[in-house]
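Field guide to reading this record: the first block holds the primary sequence, the second block holds the structure written as discrete tokens, and the final block holds curator observations. Each block starts with its own label. This record concerns glycerol-3-phosphate dehydrogenase, catalogued under organism Clonorchis sinensis.

BLOCK 1 — SEQUENCE
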Amino acid sequence: MMVNTRMLECVLSVYHSGQHEDARMCLSLALTAVRYNAAIANYVEVLELTKGRPYHSLAASTTQIGQLNLEKQPEVVTGARVRDRLTGKEFVIRARCVINATGPYTDRIRHMDNKNQPDICQPASGVHIILPGYYSPSRMGLLDPSTRDGRVIFFLPWMNFALAGTTDSPCTLTDRPSPTEAEVRFILDEIRDYLSPDIKVRRGDVLSAWSGIRPLIMDPNSADTQSIARNHVIEVSPSGLITIAGGKWTTYRSMAEETIDKAVKVCNLKPKSECRTKGLLLEGAHSWTPNLFIQLVQEHGMDVDVARHLTGIYGDKALVIANMASLTGQRWPVLGKKLHPEFPFIEAEVKWACQEYACRAIDFLARRTRLAFLNVVAAQEALPRIVELMAVELNWDKRKQKEELEHAQEFLKSEMGLHLQGKESVPLNLTMAETDQLLQRFRKLDAGTKGYITLSDLSRCCEESGEHLSKESLQVLLESMDMDKNGRIDVTDFLHFMSALKSGTVPHSPLKRVFSRAPVPVHRSGGGV
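BLOCK 2 — STRUCTURE
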């Protein structure tokens, strides 16, 4: 058993919980709204709220002008001026009712309505890390509400991996939250106590790390406005802006129904039907069955893991994706070229994602699939092919492809923990024999006896060793080894990196195979006489 049973003696209760793929759930809601004639806009930000006379007053002014004193009508929110963040184009959206459902950005929108009103949202961050699946039982997790510093920590199975993290540390609102090495170390130190003593918790087993922000809401309608609301809050401003804040996924339909009921009343809307959220099926649910994956295996010749993944994420839309899949060129599976050998994500999903409003490479890496969250190095390795496929679907030229590669690389570094990989200086732990062997290897890699290894040296060495890595992948690997950030690897960088690989402080790297591969002796190489 992986869990330290002695630590379980302090457990006070057992509870049952469920999991879902929240990014996919959010997208499914948007796609379902489109099915019911909603207009949605991706990558659009609100610049300001527009105000004017109420729509019902404007309508009345043409027929009842003598009965209304329009000058005394208070201004209400009538829409928003927005900007497309991809093109820079600005435009105005007009509406009878405006609902502010922006999570951590709740107060930013509220202040556009009235800059003097007090905040009701306290952003709180939580750092999460992904570990190999063997760290956690497949159907059991744990939660400790009382860690060394008082934060909550959880340890759960998630998408065949182990997810560990903290919650609810007050933070400053930012568009690009980033984990720190100290937070990653704290999580590892905490979970170490709950695992069997014979399991070595290694820094190098951290496959990705990220920080998320959620809003803790203070109810403005409560007498104690400083206390955190346990449930959601609906607020209506004097100008008619409706704000829905707080809540959780398990009550999202109830929250939506209450919010729309409030909008109907406040904004004098005339709905054409009663609320129909109860029993409403989301996109992909109509023809889905638990055994649908078998159809993909039997009729399309897909790998079982790929078939389970597609039907589990896309529901009955998996059949459409299967019809878009390319031949593998192998005896089995017949269809479904993988984007990365370690994951069930296939190339056809990239094409499908572009039909589901994916606009950038990170949309696919982090929001249509969870590859960036599950293994940031694997995401970096799959990135060039993802950009190639999206370029075909979205007509990207070479300049745009380069821009997307750089943008996604920066995202993986700053927000998904890639910048933490190998960042620390690891004490040398090599024997004299290992050091001598590695110094010989370093001199062989160092073309021209410069005293350091460059990107071109790495590229040449990988080609000779049969490791085919893209230029972008090599650049990331070089940066992970380059401790003084001068764009090259000196002998100190090299030995510290190999020490880190030996101790497990950094994840397994393809360069380990390259650097550790000893030259083939002449009598074994097929050369000579």
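BLOCK 3 — OBSERVATIONS
Residues 58-68, 518-529 have pLDDT under 50 and may be disordered.
DSSP finds 19 helices and 14 strands in the chain.
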